[in-house]
Amino acid sequence: MFEYEMHQLRAADLAREADRRRLLRQAREAKAARRAERRSARHGTEGRVRRVQRKISFTRAA
User: Fold this and answer.
1) Whole-model pTM over 0.90
2) Angle, CA 59 vertex, CA 52 and CA 53 arms, to 5°
3) What is d(CA 48, CA 34) in angstroms, rounded to the nearest whole number?
4) What distance in Å separates the CA atoms of residue 51 and residue 36, rounded to the nearest whole number?
5) Is 57 helix (H, G, I), strand (E, B) or coil?
6) Spatial separation of the C-alpha atoms in residues 28 and 34, rounded to whole Å
7) Helices marked H in the chain — which ranges?
């Protein structure tokens, strides 16, 4: 009987640990989704585009 009780305690402990990990994963995923939503809203639907300013110089004619 003692082994059965130990098994029940271990199973309950594993279930609590699984619940805790699941909640942590869901919280991380929600945080990442909020971050991605803010990023997409800030940069528009097309995404960020880098503009490079280049100085155009012409050589002098002889």
Assistant:
1) no
2) 10
3) 18
4) 22
5) coil
6) 10
7) 2-43
| Rounded CA separation 14/11 (Å) | 5
**Token pair for 44:** 């528009």
42-60 pLDDT tens trace: 666 565 666 666 666 767 7
Q: Cα-Cα-Cα-Cα dihedral of 40, 42, 45, 47, to 10°?
A: -80
- Residue 47, classed as helix, strand or coil, is coil
CA 16 – CA 14 distance, rounded (Å): 5
Say whether 3 sits in a helix, a strand or coil. helix
Handedness of CA 38, 44, 46, 51 (dihedral sign): negative
Q: What is the Cα–Cα distance from 22 to 29, expressed in whole angstroms?
A: 11
